Amino acid sequence: MKPVRPLVSLARVAVLLGAAALAGGPALLGCTPVAGPTGPAALHYLGQRRVWPGATVAGTVVGGLSAISYDADRDRFYVLSDDRSQHDPARFYTVRLGLSGAGIDAVEFTGVQALRDEDGRPFPAPALDADPPVVPPDPEGLAFDPRRRQLYWSSEGERRPPVLADPWVRVAGLDGAYRGAFELPPMLAMSSKQRGPRRNAALEGLTLSPDGRWLYAAMERPGYDDGDPPDRHHGALTRITRLAVDSGRPVAQFAYPLEPATAPANSNGLTNLVALSDESFLVLERAGSRRPVVRIFYAEIADATDTLAAPSLSDPAVVPMRKTLALDLTAVPGLSPLDNVEGITVGPPLPDGRRSVVLVSDDNFSPLQITQFLLLALDPPDR
Q1: Do 311 and 187 touch, CB atoms closer than 8 A?
Q2: Each residue of 244-278: b (16+ CB within 10 Å) or e?
Q3: Which is nearest to 294 in space by CA: 52, 43, 76?
Q4: CB-based contacts of 140: which residues, under 8 Å, 6+ apart?
Q5: What's the CA angle centered on 253, arms 250 and 258, to 5 degrees?
Q6: In 3-state terms, what secondary structure has residue 35?
Q7: SS3 for 225?
Q8: Which H/E stretch holds residue 15?
């Protein structure tokens, strides 16, 4: 059921989000820095700020925020909603964040852009029973390309036989206009049989390498050919595909090891990632969407097997990527509430010179959940 939401103007959103407190408690939490494990990616939690429940921007409901990417030249964040055009057409927001060593001082939504199809139209509301079915995208991943001044975004597709829609990675202008699409490997195509991606577990994360050559597209959980999803007894391997930006084609793929689920969740998945170098990443894993367990791992391709031609990840010869825990958000003292965190990006330098890492949560358009931005500090490797 769609929650009742008060209408809030764009100017009013900026005022509400910049206030010292929000309904239900302070907007800025966790001002005491909290360190994660030491190593190549030592993260420290600085604070968070929540979005006013029911806020709207230019008539669209702010919710379902599932990915975030930073534009350093304009000092703005692009934030993707995973709305399947059920509340409003598929879209992304532009956001300014006031970041400091004490946390997030203010959040300002400065605009919204509808993503558009090949014909230049916003995506319509779903109608799976229509003839032919209307299947809008399920937006999940977003990456900004500073050199080409464009966005890459992914859809998980749909799998409700006989309705099938393949996942995609598309290119959009900063005005939301369609600029093209990437070719994806065959194992990412939907099927009515027990093969290919599982429903709502396909392309969940996107990130661009710092040199702009590679776009990495990550699956949330393994496909049917790659084994069972993680549960409380075992982890699993999922796929991260390397796409060449210049050619738009897949050039390599690697197996990423997911942790087992942690109670009360029954499964675990990769919700997003951000590249720190051409072959190293911060990876978000989340178990459950209510009372979630959220962990960030430092991952490297290292000597991982190229699985682009591998029909299954069940082969014991497959060498997965290496990873180490960078921060368990669930265990951070004072980090409350912690909701369904799905987006991660590297932001601007903090006043002390450390790199900022910004997270955003997906409230699933539920009145029982929240939209929150969280700020972390990333220590340099030699610090």
Answers
A1: yes
A2: ebeeeebebbbbbbbbebbeebebbbbbbbbbbee
A3: 43
A4: 66, 67, 80, 82, 154, 155, 156, 203, 204, 205, 220, 342
A5: 140
A6: strand
A7: helix
A8: helix 10-17
pLDDT recorded at residue 24: 30
- Please give the Cα distance from 104 to 165 (Å, whole number): 39
CA distance 272 to 206: 7
- Residues 222-258 have pLDDT tens digits of 999 999 999 999 999 999 999 999 999 999 999 999 9
Residue 13's closest CA among 68, 93, 87? 93
Residue 202, token pair as written in the block: 């396909």
Reduced to 3 states (helix: H, G, I; strand: E, B; else coil), residue 331 is helix
Distances from the Cα of 218 to the Cα of 196, 206, 275, angstroms: 14, 6, 12
- Average pLDDT by consecutive 10-residue portion of the chain (383 residues)? 33 38 30 47 94 94 98 98 97 97 96 98 96 96 98 97 96 98 97 94 97 98 97 96 98 98 90 97 90 95 97 95 96 93 97 96 94 94 53
